[in-house]
């Protein structure tokens, strides 16, 4: 495995090994790799002849009061984890390498990014789509792997790829969970013991919403109320949103007919957690 840090290096390294019948799989990450990322690597390794993991904490996608400065950056441990999972190349550029001059060109996927996280993190998905498009152009993969925990991000990337006719297959990978149901996330490490104890309530609330839908409830307001009742069991939990949305454009629905996603974001102290469930039928 080889770790490189410049656009020139990764392009030259891939050009030397690129073959017509060898698919290149890309896994874009911000590092602080965990078992969810391991599942992405394992999936890509099975399906591709070459696997590239990018590690880049993208400053553009953090708001002024968010956790860019304290976001964990254990690069050496991340590289070693990639090595153990058979990754071929790690591309870990500095911010100055990805943005050598002020960025004046952006990719914005409207509508899909309007609600849920997009409503509370202005500019976030514009920055995500921009950096992912840059990575697609740099690496030129055949397949790119994204976790389903970041459901809206996945929808944004899918729509960008389709609308811009990008020759990349977007591969969703199921959410990895702790034994108590909490979705694995790099930000879980911020939680203190008491916060960690109540964090699984978000998933339980989403499961309650799913139960309501599967039992035949169509009224999104009643479904939300049932889920919010679960979250109300813990005063520590501050709800940012909990919505039932369509699976393609992430628009809230008032009358529920599957397939739908139920998505939520909560705060525990200074830590923001997101999760979702998909109800197919």
Please tell me about this protein's structure:
The longest helix has 16 residues, at 124-139. It contains 10 helices and 9 strands. The N and C termini lie far apart (43 Å). Helix 6 (124-139) packs across helix 7 and helix 9 runs antiparallel to helix 10 (220-231). It folds into 2 domains: 2-173, 3-Layer(aba) Sandwich (Rossmann fold), CATH 3.40.50.620; 186-276, 2-Layer Sandwich (Pantoate--beta-alanine Ligase, Chain: A,domain 2). The strands form 2 sheets. It has a 6-stranded parallel sheet with strand order 1-4-3-2-5-6, with helices on both faces. A 3-stranded antiparallel sheet has the order 7-8-9, covered by helices on one side. The radius of gyration is 19 Å and the shape is globular. The chain is an alpha/beta fold and 281 residues long. The mean pLDDT is 97.
